[in-house]
Amino acid sequence: MESLLRTLYLQHLGVNDRGEQMFTGPSQKTPHGRVFGGQILGQSLMAATLTAPEDGRSVHSLHAYFMRPGDAEQPVEFDVEIMRDGRSFTTRRVRAMQFGRIILSMMASFQHPDAYAFDHADEMPEVAPPEDLPSFDAIVAPAANKYPGVRYYAQRRPFDLRHVNQPIALEPDPNPASVNAVWMRPMADLPDDERLYPPVLAYASDYTLLESVLRRHGLAWSMGLRTASLDHAMWFHRPIPVNEWLLCVQTSPSASGGRGLGVGRIFTRDGALVATAAQEGMVRPDGAR
User: Is residue 120 part of a domain?
Assistant: First the structure.
């Protein structure tokens, strides 16, 4: 958890000649040497958050494009453009960069709380509670030496993940399904800092969204697939109790052209819909161009 906090608490570098606020943050090492997409997503949102007015505004949406793979051995720089500060809404554009090239471009919007809004939400489906499900670590432990990447994500990941369906890290589910549901919670409690909670949720949302694509086709991560995140969008609906169990219920409405779309609704344990996430990724058999 300390690694995640070091990653998300960015260093302010000042203002560049275009009037943009500049930040930098470290990268988390990965087995394949590429930056984890959730890291860049969370850091970019944190950079935008650090420039928003401190009048109670909080992020309500982000839309990001992954443009190049990042180098996990190098830090990342973030340039934040102050696009607009209105009476109710604030807009920021963030560029995440390494070696002078953009690796992610994000737009984020913040809103001052509106007490006169309509309020409704989808209901959370009934699923097994997290206490009745094995942790991801326990499931993949027997194969950890065979799959270094699995060992890394099982042992060094800052979140406890518990799949309602059979996990598909090592083997496909013999019963392909249209829904992928995962409970998640930090391995240790995060500090009392509300600026941190949406970036942390953005970070965690990148773990399993594309599993909904694989699950529909009876595939597993270990089957030599070529996958990469292309874009990511999130909408933040309600306060996030990030230190408690959250349920991400994911579906894939479409896959075509070597791309698959995953959509996830994130609920609190008592059924409040706190966020919705969507990601399109490249999903190709190994060897396909």
Answer: no
